[in-house]
Amino acid sequence: MPPSASPAAPQRLNATPRGARLARRLTALQLAAWGHPYDSGVNRTAQQLVAELAANAVTHGRVPGRGLILVSLLALTWGVAERDVGKTVGVELALKEPGL
To answer: What angle do CA 21, 27, 31 make, to 5 degrees?
Structure first.
């Protein structure tokens, strides 16, 4: 994934159900801090993307799951970078809701 000039909030989390819940919660909090309220489309979409990616990591580990189809539909771009230990997964999404 190429580096982006957009805001980012990297976090290292365990591939467990607890880590997946924490990922979604941290996403909601960070987007709210960036001016996208919890009930905004951007915040909801980001939470859904993070939830699908985290659930995929917990459930499938190295094998892509069906949630990645949803990620492909909701994200502008997404990708995976292999690391010495584990992987880094990232997504980009539009900060404006369609039609606004």
So the answer is: 155
Cβ–Cβ under 8 Å, residues 46 and 64: no
Cβ neighbourhood burial of 43 (10 Å; 0-12, 13-18, 19+): buried
Q: Quick one: tokens of 52?
A: 């699908």
CA distance between the termini of the chain: 28
Tokens (6 digits) for 76: 């502008």
Q: How far is CA 3 from CA 8, 56, 78, 90, 94, in A?
A: 10, 23, 12, 10, 16
Q: How confident is the model at residue 2 (pLDDT cuts 50, 70, 90)?
A: very low
pTM of the model: 0.65
Q: pLDDT tens digits for 39-98?
A: 999 999 999 888 888 887 777 665 556 677 778 888 888 888 888 877 778 888 887 765
